Structure formats: structure tokens, C-alpha cells
Amino acid sequence: MTEMAGRPGTSGGLVLRAGQFIFAAACICAMSSAPGFTNYTAFCYLIASMGLQALWSLGLACLDCYALILKRDLQQAFFMSLFVVGDWVTAILSFAAACSAGGVVVLFERDAYFCRRDPQLPCGRFEVATAFAFLSCACSAASALVVFWLLASL
Amino acid sequence: MTEMAGRPGTSGGLVLRAGQFIFAAACICAMSSAPGFTNYTAFCYLIASMGLQALWSLGLACLDCYALILKRDLQQAFFMSLFVVGDWVTAILSFAAACSAGGVVVLFERDAYFCRRDPQLPCGRFEVATAFAFLSCACSAASALVVFWLLASL
Fold it and tell me: Partner of B27 for a Cys bridge, out of A144, B35, B133, B150, CB 3.0 to 4.6 A?
């Protein structure tokens, strides 16, 4: 069980962290380039939670690089507990933010027809940012499940 | 680890299942009593996912009762794998539905002031239904974590 792909301190783990960081950063860029996003709480919350996700993933990616270069083992109970707490908190916050932004985007697009009525509303950018947030969540969920499984089997 | 509170086939597990079912049913009642909820995709999705949650929790609660009355042990790899898949799918769907409904409720209440502008909109019921959905999710997340932990430590 301790040879799982994507565990911390391996190249698989580094790829997952890089994915989380890149998608979170892309989400922030797409959303912050959409004028007027600050009028909507769900989109502000998305930016905040993706910012936290990007910081956490960048930190863990650096730790993975350190472990890979110096061939250190990160699979100790202390590190695993820290990764589990951090990964689960960031994954849950990101998923909540992505879903609430998704709910608002669907409302704009399909339920209230805001996008058709107001062509100034940057619906395309809201959609792209929400899609990137879900991709970041998917990478984050994979990391969270791997570390939880590793902690449980320690 | 196999003596964890809330594991399937124990009274703790039954309490968690009962909580999931009661809150999911309360969410469905509150939302379906709100006129016009079918105009909003997020609220329709909330009803659908809470319906699935209620059915799954009721089934598992019956299985817990059976195990408690006949003193059967449900901690076998087959049952655990089944519980993990079902619990995680329902927990993730419910959480996504609760968050997207939450995003729409916040938009109605704070961002677009729909609730003030249109007193016919049953915002109070939307809020109550969303709160019940989050309570059901909390119980569901507890069950999902317990069974995942148990499967990992089998």
C-alpha cells in the first residue's frame, strides 16, 4: 500500500501538486480578468479558495522537489497527518467554491438568461474559471485520497 | 481501529444513517413546499441528490438494524467496498448540490437582492432547505470517512 502512485515525495505526487497549482492559478487569472466579478460572493469566494489552494500546492510541490532531489522519505506519521489535514481542508474548500460558482454560472446561463440579456456580463470567463476550479479540485481530491489512504494504512 | 464509533452495523452507524435520512427528507419537504423552485436548476439538482441520499441512507439504516438485531458483523471487505463506493458517491453529490444551492441562495439574498425586490420568492424556504442539505452532508461525510478508514485498515 505504501507504493501507491501519487504519494508525497515522488514524481507522481509532484505531478498532482503541479496540476493543482496550474489549474488554480489559471482559474484565478480567468476570473480576475472578468470585469465585475467582485459583485458576486460565489466568485470572490472562488478566488479566495483557489488562492489558498495555489499556495498550499506550491508549498507541497517544493517539498516534493526537496524529497526527490535529496531522496528523503516523507512517509512518516507527522508529515502524513499534516498532509491529510491540509489536503482535506483545501480540497473541501475548493470543491465547495467550484460548486457554488457552478450553481451561479448555470443560473446566469440557463435559468435567468442573464448572459443573453446582458451581453456585457463576461459569462464565458466565469465558465472557464469554474472549469479550471473543477480541474484543480480533481487533482486535489486525488492527493487527499492518497494521503488519507496512506495514513490509514501506516 | 475496527472499534471506531459510527462504523456500519453498530448503533453509532445507525444514528448517522438516521441523521442523513431525516435531514435529507426535511430538505426535500422544505424545498418542494417552495413554489417556483423548479425554475432553478440548482434547486432541482438539490432535490434529486437529496432523494438519492435519502434512499441510500434508508437502505443502509435497514441493514444496520438487521445487523444489530441478528448480531451480524458487516466489517467484511465486500460490504466495506460497497459502503465506501455508495457513501462517497452520495456524499460528493449531496455536497455539490448543497454548495451550488448555497451559491444561488447567497446570490438571491445578498448580491442581486432578488429576495427584497420580489417578496413572492420563497427565499426563507430555499435557505432552510439548503441548511438541511448541509446537515445531511455532514452526517454523510462522517459515514464516508469512517468506512474509508475501515477499508484502508482492513
Answer: B133
